[in-house]
Amino acid sequence: MSNVSKTPLPEYRPRCLGGLNDLLGRSDATVEWIEVAVRHLKQVNDNEGTSKACELAAWHGIKVNLIDFNDLPVQWASLQVLSVYQKLEWFLLEFRDEHPRKVRSKNKGEDPLAYTLNAYNVSKQNVGVLEYEILDYYRLVRNHIMHKPTEQQAKKHISQCESINERTANSVYAKLDAPCMLTTLGFDDFILFSRALKNFARSLCAATCPTAQEFAALLEVDVPLRRALRRVNQNPERVQKKLASYLRRYYGLPSCADDLSAAILRLCPLAQR
Fold first, then answer.
1. Sign of CA dihedral 158, 126, 247, 234
2. Within 10 A of 99 (CB to CB), how many other CB atoms are there?
3. Where are the alpha helices (DSSP H) in the chain?
């Protein structure tokens, strides 16, 4: 029997990974342009006065309430963090739904990051300790913004921020002035969160590559796929090619799809009935 059925696959790019990259790509572009608008608005207010900023609002036909323009960058950065966190949650839910491996349900109150690593038996080292801690920091930032907006940032959370800053100094994130405290959040926090999420997602997929046994178990209950394979079951080569095409299309397994499909069919003869 092929070793493919016994060892994790070297590649795994489920649809949710591509979906995440697409969502973040569109979000990044949108946020970048809005950041330009926010900086321009603050510049107008700082250099020409609040009345001039209000004239801009009136020119665009938007009724506004006066705000503290000094607080505008932090408020805007807070919304950016909420936006990225929503995509993190989406990815983790889709990842679990798509993965052939069956894992336990999340316990009430269990944070989604810790749950995912525990459920799939993945260590922080597998997904990047720094990336995990960056995502965990912004998870807590999000929770504070949503549930404790009037309270001070916890000392433990501040220490976590300081610790991450020390470690990012010698990392691929070194040029970013982030992470920041809740009261000084900025555009670089959005960039750091988004980049760390992309790197985390790729590493999580690589660390949880399904085995042929897991795909075979999925095939046992995937009635539409089994039905499609049975339509060509008079030709074993066509069955294997059809299954390999399915693995490439839905699980992003280009180079090993042929070997993997052969191993799956040996493990799951029902597919050929």
1. negative
2. 22
3. 15-48, 50-59, 72-98, 112-119, 124-127, 129-147, 155-168, 187-207, 212-221, 223-230, 236-251, 257-267
pLDDT at 269: 66
CB 50 within 8 A of CB 66: yes
* Structure tokens, 247: 């693995």
- Tell me the residue type at 166: E
pTM above 0.85, yes or no: yes
CB-based burial label for 210 (10 Å; 0-12, 13-18, 19+) = buried
Per residue in 167-186, pLDDT (tens digit) is 999 999 999 999 999 999 99
Residues 69 and 87: their CA atoms lie apart, in Å, by 28
CA–CA distance, 39 with 110 (Å, rounded to integer): 38
Residues 259 and 217: their CA atoms lie apart, in Å, by 17
Please count the residues of the chain: 273
The Cβ of residue 114 has, within 10 Å, a number of other Cβ atoms equal to 14
**How is residue 122 written in tokens?**
């993945």
Domain ranges in the chain are 15-207, 211-272
